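Exam revision sheet. Question 4 asks you to relate a sequence to its structure. Input first:
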Amino acid sequence: MGERRQRRTFDREFKKQTVQLIIDGHRPLLSIARELNIDPTVLRNWKRDYLKDQENAFPGKGHIRPEDEELHKLRKELVDLREENTILKKVLAIFSRPSK
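Answer key, structure tokens:
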């Protein structure tokens, strides 16, 4: 049976430095991938993410970009408001009934 490979994690600074090596172009991506024993596709993804948004690239596990954080907050607020609206409709229906 094949052994399961341990998933490695890399901190933000390591990823930034590695991407900088790729961007500087002194050595080919495949050479860097072999030296670091990292799949070339992973390095390409790191480069793509870094070039897309250098400030917020590689936020880390459990952290999200500010735009995504705002979207998450707004979605939660929408759910809460819909729930409140449903409750208010039920209360209105109860108090609108003719009294006996």
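Marking note for examiners. The first helix runs from residue 12 to 24.
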